[in-house]
Amino acid sequence: MLTQELQIWVAVVGTLAIFSFLIKENPFYRFFEYTVIGMSAAHSVVMTWDNYTKAFWTNYVMKGEYYLLIPGAIALLYYLRYAPGKYQWLYRYPLSLIMGYSIGYALAYEPRPFMVQVRGTFEKLTSFNDWLYLFVFFAVCSYFVFTFWNKSAAVNKTRGFARYAMMAYFGVAFGNTVQGRFSLLLGRLLFLLQDWLHLVNIGSGVG
Amino acid sequence: MKRQVPLILTTAMAIVVFLSVVSYSLTELQVQAKIDRMRQFMTAVLMFMGVANLLRVHGNVISKKERNWMFSGWLLVIMFVYMIFGMAVGNKNLTYRWFYDAIIVPVNGTMYALVAFYLTSASYKAFRARTAEAAIMMVCAAWVMVSNVPVGDFLWPSTSALGGMAGIRDWIVSVPNSAVSRAIAVGIFLGGFASNLRIFLGLERRHLGAG
Amino acid sequence: MLEKLNNLDSRWMYLALVIVLIIPVIKPIGMPVSVNKDLTQRAYDTIGALPAGSIVMFDVAYSASTDTELTPMMMAIMEQMAKKGLKLLVAGQWESGLFFVKDKVAAKAKSFGWKYGVDWVNIGFKAGGISTFRAMATDFWKGAMGIDIDKTPFEQLPIMQRVKKLDENAISCIVIYESGSPGMETWITYFPKISLVKASVAAEIASSVRYIPTGQLKGLIPGMRGAAEYEKLVGKPGVSTQLMDAQSLSCLLIIGLIVLGNIAFFSSKKKAGHIGR
After folding, report:
1. Is A12 contained in some domain?
2. Would you say residue A117 lies in a domain?
3. Scanning A120, B63, B68, B122, which has its CA 20 to 30 A from the CA of C93?
4. Residue A191 and residue A207 in one domain
5. Rg, Å, chain A Cα set
6. Which residues of B are less than 8 Å from A114 in CB distance?
7. Contact flag A189-C146 (C-beta cutoff 8 Å)
8. Partners of chain C (3+ Cβ pairs below 8 A)
9. What is the pLDDT of residues B13-43, one digit of tens each?
10. Do B211 and A88 touch (CB under 8 A)?
11. How far is CA A165 from CA A1, A169, B174, in A?
């Protein structure tokens, strides 16, 4: 009953429903928007349950790692975030542990890639491009960091230069983003032309 | 109890995790591995958070009969049906997979693809070279776009002077673009690090919410 | 005329975009693609330099929406790996990505004659983010729950005997297919010793390029263009190569619209200036 043909038709209807938003917002679009939000949330739970939680529980917790029940019980308190006001504050306990964990790792690990980046800016200052790189780097840093030194003519001129450099960055980002989005649109058009209307036969990326 | 203990817990946990990474003796005792394991299990327990949040938000909409409340009801129904079905039969089940490929894949993809249309109309209506900065941005964007496609190689091949369009694009990307990106990343890192330190020292309490 | 240009309905532009994209897909032009020496070539050389038998780990950090950009890259890299005799371990930081590429990767591996569990393995999505990957760094089997995507225990998969810890001794190179967060930062921050190649969506190129000079990224494959370049390098033009013509025309359309929009704007400004006088 659930054939490939029917699947393609359902996918086509969903695709066209989302595209209909370009003309005007409508209930057709909204129906599929809400459907995909609900299904995506459900899918996330199913994947976590199937590949992670179930295996964790049966292969490890129930086979000797009983100490894990303590953080598990603390984690359950997080759901009280959605409880009535009287018990809501209890969610702060697991939150504080999770925050502390993230902060500990951030303080221990995150400076390193940042220092590598800063060091890389000063390495091998042999060509014009290297010096220009260094100057642009400092100019943009001065734009963001030295926001209070706005009376200095030198800093203001440097900031002006930094603005031009940033515009080059935003231009590159915009140009690449445009092409990226066109790629996504091409994917959907390819689905409609190939899988639905059979007007082309390019392939799906599998050799 | 309600605020002080969580603040102390945050700092204590951060210290323990930090020391478990940098301290040789704690590394020998594999403290980091145990902490990672406990954090992993907390994630396993918290797998319903997304669902709970959607239930709260859309439950509110339904109870107050706000705009699109019927769609919110449909969202909750489809979410629970798909979730229970998936948890019961597993994600390898062909029917589960059928619905995933029929609805989530195309609709998700199309939502992102819509942005291409808005970029097109924004390019026409909003992209104005009013100032020198805007003009630079426009020129760089156009250059990168054309040089990234075969037309750019056709107009000014990479084998000719200055490496062609691709050569100049590579210069723009590897010098000003990369330098700006690095400087912005440094700024973001410093801000994030400062924020982490503030929470670590108990100076920042907003993450605990009101009350 | 100026009035019409300034008030041009967006839906005409949408129609123009669709036409400009569809025509070259149906009737390809076949413009050649040149390879970016700083980005794609580096990625190709990094993977090509690995000794036969090395394990390459794929991190599938994207969802179905960026399938068109990233999956062709994955197929092209697998082609290269097959030629070089490399082994594959597929993992993922995102739950959605692995689910829909699973069959494509399996079909591709089958076409090479790869044996599951010996030449390649798919361990599936493991929730937990950084804590899970950190756990895998000390004990891979325990951190990954000891099962693959089909719940086969690692004990039954010979290739997993070589991966007891997630470090540079077990994994020679990580290729991350990324369209957002969490992504490359996980590997750069917590696993800096493992070679990292990023297969990126076009939108992230501007912010990722800075990692190349410092060696934190060994190569970067930029968007659909990068996929087409990689297909050229492995000698198997595929979907991306055939869609580059559509990309070409759509870029020209955007530039045309920018120019037209500015002409309309400045002309009306000039006219308003004349009327004002």
Report:
1. yes
2. no
3. A120
4. yes
5. 27
6. 185-186, 189
7. no
8. A, B
9. 999 999 988 887 777 778 888 898 899 999 9
10. yes
11. 59, 6, 12
Q: Is the pLDDT of residue C277 over 80?
A: no
Residue C11: inside a domain: no
C149 in A contact zone (CB under 8 Å)? yes
Whole-angstrom distance, CA of residue A158 vs CA of residue C168: 43
Residues of A in contact with B189 (CB under 8 A): 110, 114
**Which of residues 81 through 110 in chain B touch A, CB cutoff 8 A?**
81-83, 86-87, 90-91, 94-96, 98-110
- When CB atoms are compared, the residue of B92, B121, B125 closest to C150 is B92
Contact A59 C145 (CB under 8 A): yes
- A141 Cβ under 8 Å from any chain C Cβ: no
**Chain segment C152-192, per-residue pLDDT in tens:** 999 999 999 999 999 999 999 999 999 988 899 999 999 99
Is residue B87 within 8 Å of A45, Cβ to Cβ?
Answer: yes
- CB within 8 Å of C103: residues ≥ 6 apart: none
B165 in Cβ contact with B146 (< 8 Å): yes
- Asked if B46 is an interface residue toward chain A (Cβ–Cβ < 8 A), one would say yes
Query: Quick check: is A188 in a domain?
Result: yes
A182 pLDDT above the threshold of 80: yes
Is A46 domain-assigned?
yes
Q: How far apart are CA A188 and CA A22, in angstroms?
A: 15
Yes or no, beta carbons of A101 and B13 under 8 Å apart: yes
Q: Over the stretch A84-120, which tens digit does the pLDDT of each residue have?
A: 778 888 899 999 999 999 999 999 999 999 999 999 9
**What's the structural domain count of chain A?**
3
A-facing residues of C in 116-145 (CB < 8 A) are: 124-128, 130-131, 134, 142, 145
CA-based radius of gyration for chain C: 23
The two tokens of residue B10 are: 């945050």
As for how many domains chain C has, the answer is: 1
Q: What is chain C's mean pLDDT, rounded?
A: 91
B132 inside 8 A of chain A by CB: yes
- Before C182, cis peptide (omega within 30)? yes
Average pLDDT value for chain A: 90
Identify the domain boundary among A109, A144, A166. Answer: A109
Domain C-terminal end among A52, A75, A109 = A109
d(CA B99, CA C257): 39
**Residue C182 belongs to what domain range?**
40-207+222-243
CB-CB neighbours of B187 under 10 Å: 15
Report the DSSP beta bridge partners of residue C120: C88, C116
Backbone angles phi, psi at C58, to 5 degrees: -95, 130
Helix, coil or strand: residue C174: strand
Out of C64, C129, C205, closest to residue B109 by CB: C64
| Residue in chain A nearest C238 by alpha carbon | A205
- The first and second tokens of residue C146, run together, are 């000891």
Distance from CA of A135 to the nearest CA of B (A): 9
Q: What CATH number is associated with residue C143?
A: 3.40.50
Q: Coil, strand, or helix at residue C178?
A: strand
Give CA C141 to chain center in angstroms.
27
Q: What is the pTM of this model?
A: 0.91
Which one of C6, C12, C13, C164 makes the best mutation probe of the B interface by having the most chain B beta carbons within 10 Å? C13
The residue segments making up the domain with residue A32 are 1-64
Q: Does A34 touch chain C (CB under 8 A)?
A: no
